[in-house]
Specification:
Layout: H1 3-15, H2 18-25, H3 29-43, E1 48-49, E2 56-57, H4 59-86, E3 91-97, H5 102-116, E4 120-126, H6 129-138, E5 143-146, E6 155-168, E7 180-181, H7 199-207, H8 225-233, E8 239-242, H9 251-254, E9 257-260, E10 264-274, H10 280-293, E11 305-307
Parallel strand pairs: 3-4, 3-5, 7-9, 10-11
Antiparallel strand pairs: 1-2, 5-10, 6-8, 6-9, 6-10
Helix pairs in contact: 1-2, 1-3, 1-4, 2-3, 5-10
């Protein structure tokens, strides 16, 4: 057994197709197939059920794949130890960011990374919270920015700043005449919300005690906050935006933003990484850069805010 074989079975599990797995590993399909078969012969078990299309792991194969992921992650950490010694704040880092965080935070952060970490190469992927956690556990990314505490004891959290949820209302609505939005009144309106699985939606639904609303005339699958904001501007329903969006809006659009009445729902933007990630100096520096990019008042939970 060798690490290369473990990489091959991990690729086959990811793509469930010999040809695509071989392309991913930059080898020929016969080479990949032969190496996996030799591993199965050595272990005396079948890792994959080839009679099923697409290919799936066997029951014991799933356990082998889970252990292979641990081994490959630990091997990657050995390389990171060396990289931490030789590069510290240079080299590459793979960053996962929520779709409701990336458009408003990254334009603030990236210029500071360019200034303070000029030799660091950052690969960014937009992922939902559950996808960030899975990618960290599997070693596909190094660090993630999410909007809640992590749920795995294998991950380490670094709270960075606190961001309020804000309402976005049409001029034609009675809410436009109000100074604040009351959570108890939200369900009376046509709501534009992100799909289930986005923590931005889940946290709002929980805070406002929203359930299935039969009077909702429209729904929008795989929508974005920007799309929903355009709907609102045309007088169609209301939506919600994160606090950092305000600085990106024109004066006319800012007039549509409303804070919640007390308590105001707030999320904690948190940097997370695997407990075995060894580039501690890089984690600390990135955290400092992110915190420096937001208004100082957002660095602490403010009076009247309710963490969701």
């Amino acid at each position: 057994m060798n690490l290369q074989q473990l990489e091959y079975i991990q690729a086959l599990d990811k793509f469930r197709h010999f040809g695509r797995a071989a392309d991913y590993c930059d080898v020929t399909q016969p080479t990949l197939s032969t190496m996996i078969q030799k591993l199965e012969e050595e272990l005396g078990v079948k890792i994959f059920d080839r009679s099923h299309q697409p290919i799936i792991p066997t029951a014991v194969g799933r356990r082998i794949l889970d252990q292979a992921a641990v081994i490959l992650l630990q091997m990657a950490q050995v390389k990171e130890v060396i990289r931490e010694e030789t590069e510290t704040l240079t080299g590459k880092v793979r960053l996962g960011v929520l779709p409701t965080v990336a458009p408003y935070l990254l334009p603030r952060v990236l210029p500071l990374i360019k200034k303070h970490l000029p030799e660091l190469k950052v690969t960014i992927t937009e992922l939902k919270t559950s996808e960030c956690v899975s990618a960290l556990l599997s070693g596909e990314i190094d660090i993630a920015l999410i909007a809640s505490a992590s749920t795995s004891d294998q991950l380490v959290d670094h709270p960075l700043f606190y961001e309020e949820f804000l309402g976005y209302v049409p001029r034609q609505s009675e809410l436009f005449a109000e100074e604040y939005i009351r959570s108890s009144e939200v369900g009376k309106h046509q709501l534009w919300l992100l799909d289930e699985g986005h923590c931005f939606r889940d946290q709002l639904v929980k805070f406002c005690h929203l359930k299935n609303a039969p009077h909702q005339r429209f729904s929008y699958s795989r929508g974005s906050l920007e799309t929903f904001m355009h709907f609102v501007e045309q007088g169609n329903g209301i939506t919600f935006v994160p606090e950092l969006v305000i600085d990106t809006l024109s004066p006319d659009r800012r007039e549509l933003v409303r804070s919640f009445a007390l308590p105001r729902p707030t999320r904690c933007i948190t940097l997370i990484h695997h407990q075995e990630y060894v580039r501690h100096a890089l984690v600390e520096r990135l955290g400092e850069v992110v915190r420096a990019s937001v208004p100082k008042e957002m660095l602490r939970l403010r009076p009247g805010q309710d963490l969701v």
